[in-house]
Amino acid sequence: MKRSLKIGAVSGIGIFLHWTFLLLVAAIFGYYYVQSQSVGAAIASMGLILGVFVCVVLHELGHALTARRFGVGTRSITLYPIGGLARLQRIPSEPMKEFWIAVGGPAVNLAIAVVLALVVLVGDGMFAPTALQAPGGNTLTSLMWINLALAGFNLLPAFPMDGGRVLRALLATRQDYAQATQTAAHVGQAMAFLFGIFGLLSFNPILVFIALFVYVGAQQESQQAVYRAFTEGTPVRQAMVTRFATLDVDDTLDDAVNKLLAGTDHDFPVVQDGAVVGLLRRKQLIQALSDHDRDAPVRTVADREFFTTDPGAPLDDVFQRMNEADCSTVPVVNGTQLAGLLTLENVGELIMVSSALKTRATRAVKRADVNDDTVRRMAGEDDAAATGATQES
Ligand SMILES: [Zn+2]
Predict the structure, then answer these.
(1) Of 232, 253, 273, the domain-final residue
(2) Where is the domain boundary, 200, 232, 264?
(3) pLDDT per residue over 184-212, tens digit each?
(4) Residue 146 shares a structural domain with residue 163
């Protein structure tokens, strides 16, 4: 978010402008200046840019407000040169909800295009797309075409475009989520590949750029789905760290620094008689060192507002809550006693280990050409081994 400028908020959702958006403004200004050889005409095109900008924000609000209807909040909306991005707090696991949230954005652009078409019809009736080459006079016609293009581009069935999500949601109604994501990601990457080849052959750098963007987006999306597939149905106990450093309520900042430097832990639970009373994060510790004496007790600076979980809680719920609260460490509590720590890093390790073992099991079975039951059995057994290994770490 550092490279983005906050330009406002709509119903509590912050709207940010990424610095690269200014490149788009410069490119459009340059294009019209070259076309018309006049600064005045180029400045007139700024009205069009402002219009496009508003339409992109409305597109993202289409997603955000549809999501809100399903009880999903939106963290922020950021505008990039090739479109906006609404960061939802989570993706609903019901495919049809995701479908409607994805469709919500392009639907807004189609609605705007229809309204503009009616306005143009009542006015001069000039619908020719050539209006795009001479802005200023025909801003409304230009905007209508741009909205149609925005709706069409976003409905391409490729991640991270809305069409990719629509495709995944439709696939997910008949297969499991991770598999649907893989399929949709492969379709997206194949399309990115075609865009790339076509862009290179036609010397079109914008197309090559879009191809790269789509390729990376598809990859990220499939990784997230893998995360979700592995955390679903797993108890917190399987992913928690059981060997970690703690601080006593009477420990000083100096003790905390020693523990921070001696090991790899970043966040320390502050413990009194075996119960967690606070959480000291690395950032707070560093901040405290510049504000307090080194012999100040950790209890004065430790965070008392944190959430805990129990070992039997479902990992996917807790993982989602950690992402929503932007929290990297959660104490796992058994009754009143501290039993372990759940860290994002460790969940990541569990997933890496499990997926490596699963790949190996599947390959081994393919080589031996045995039936499906063996694949499932081997993957299951190896899962247990992976969990054991992670718990020890
Ligand atoms: Zn969208």
Answers:
(1) 232
(2) 232
(3) 888 888 888 888 898 899 888 878 888 88
(4) no
Amino acid occupying residue 382: D
Q: Which domain holds residue 81?
A: 1-155
**Number of folded domains that form the chain:** 2
Q: Are residues 132 and 198 in the same domain?
A: no
Percent above pLDDT 70 for the chain: 86
CA distance 186 to 189: 5
Say how many Å lie between the CA of residue 139 and the centre of ligand 1.
23
What phi, psi does 241 have (nearest 5°)?
-85, 135
Residue type, 354: S
* Summary mean pLDDT of the chain: 80
* 156 DSSP assignment: S
- CB count within 10 Å of CB 172 equals 23
Structure-block tokens of residue 354: 């499990």
Residue 373 has pLDDT above 60, yes or no: no
CA of 202 to the centre of ligand 1 (A): 27
Residue 78 alpha carbon to ligand 1 centre in Å = 11
Q: So what's the pLDDT on residue 143?
A: 87
